[in-house]
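// run 5 | inverse folding | seed 20
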């Protein structure tokens, strides 16, 4: 949600890909792709954003914390990032999502968006459940 220098962003993508492969992810057994090359993520985020009310997004603690750290100048990208996360989950009709405690509220938003969409347009998206790691 913060502007990046194009060269730094390209290097970050390569570094992240290298780290994923170094962790043992086998591209012969799973799909590895750059999300920004799949326009359906942004397209679904737009549709879901049209079904999500602003007061709900303003109540998310991550918005409040990040906005405070940006001198109360939070961006639209920061505000709507949880809707993009919901689109990332719902696009693939995910049924279970591994999340940390700090992302539970964002997953709950994805669940609510899925339910709202299904109520309005018919059963389409599964309502994803959280998989919380036990530490």
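// decoded
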């Amino acid at each position: 949600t913060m502007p990046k220098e194009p060269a730094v962003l390209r290097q970050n993508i390569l570094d992240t890909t290298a780290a994923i492969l170094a962790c043992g992810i086998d591209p012969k057994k799973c799909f590895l792709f750059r999300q920004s090359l799949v326009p359906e993520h942004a397209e679904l985020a737009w549709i879901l954003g049209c079904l999500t009310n602003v007061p709900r997004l303003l109540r998310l603690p991550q918005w409040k914390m990040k906005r405070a750290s940006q001198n109360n100048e939070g961006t639209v990208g920061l505000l709507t990032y949880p809707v993009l996360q919901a689109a990332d989950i719902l696009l693939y009709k995910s049924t279970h999502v591994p999340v940390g405690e700090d992302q539970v509220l964002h997953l709950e938003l994805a669940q609510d968006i899925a339910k709202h969409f299904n109520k309005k347009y018919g059963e389409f998206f599964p309502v994803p459940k959280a998989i919380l790691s036990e530490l």
